[in-house]
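Why does this matter for the project? Reviewers at the last site visit asked to see concrete outputs rather than summary tables. In response, this paragraph embeds two records directly. Each consists of the residue sequence and, immediately after it, the corresponding structure tokens. Nothing has been edited or filtered.
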Amino acid sequence: MAVENAKVLIIVNNWGIEETELTRPLRDLKAAGAQVMLAATTLDPCETVQHDRYEGETLTPDARLADVQAADYDLLVVPGGTCNVDRIRVNEDAITLAQEFAHEGKPIAAICHGAWLLVNADLIEGKTASPCRYIAADIENAGGHYVDKQLTVDDANGWKLITSRKPDDLDYFVGAIKEALA
């Protein structure tokens, strides 16, 4: 499969998303020819933030989390933003989607706090990940291995996990997503 034939699902809560962690993958993958779907908790506008505190761009979701299925996509992206992921990691639709992607052997890319969803979905055990340092203990307590690197790609347990720490790592993160879709 090539990037231009790929179907990518990005999932978020409707507010508190770290702006560049959503907009960079969304726009870069679309520019590369991928079909990208933004699914949110509701169809209300998605309000992003910069550095968890300054108002960011507002985007319109394409679908609700409850209305999308992993079978229709090739890769899942989970952007960060502390408030975004704090809400989405307890959302049953988001948890189920992450579990379905992993069980179908499809890649999941999570940046910054995005890996919190994988902790709650019981998917991090046996994986090495490099999310933001603030959730390192959560990764370790869930049976994963935390590393402080710009990018980690782990193929353990039959599915690929792509993780990066923060917006400064987006070049590596988006590059790894494109490589996983190549």
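We now turn to the second protein, recorded in exactly the same manner.
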Amino acid sequence: MPSSLLPEPRVARRAVLGAGLALASLRGWAAQDADAEALLRKGGVVAAFRHSLAPGTFDPPGFRLGDCSTQRNLSEEGRAQARSVGAWFQQRQLQPGKVLSSPWCRCVDSATLAFGTPQVWAALGSPHGSPETTSTAHLRELRAALATASSRPGRFEAWFTHMFVLSDLANTNASSGEALILRADTRGKTEVLARLAVPA
């Protein structure tokens, strides 16, 4: 669809999020694993990953869930990136108590390559249509699950999702393959405690 025909809020949202990715990436690579590792060991947090590198923007017209051939998928670099995530956790003997993924193939594949087969959860799915915002019902589910995970010291969860979901849940961006270490505060508000970007 020509960009001139896209609804204005969608264009603005895409531009703002896209512009923030470079800064998010720099912060992620700079604030490496020390803080994130300590938080994961302490538990009561969620490592919320944006799926690994899948070149392009959005899915092709007519994409179908459950049919990876119709979706935007991980590149070989993205697959290596996901394996590196798994290796980082394995080397530190950090094992998530639960691994959850968006139904989109690029998220399921990222989770599988890192930790093994995940539990698919629709609430982590990519928003589609216009505007690209996570539904109120899904955000409610995500916040409730984050609050539950935050009340469990000694264990953490790994979630695999999309840029827009992370933006709506945590009010910030993440680069491909990067994790935001999240916790819900006593009022249920999402806190970003650290970032984890594992070199491929």
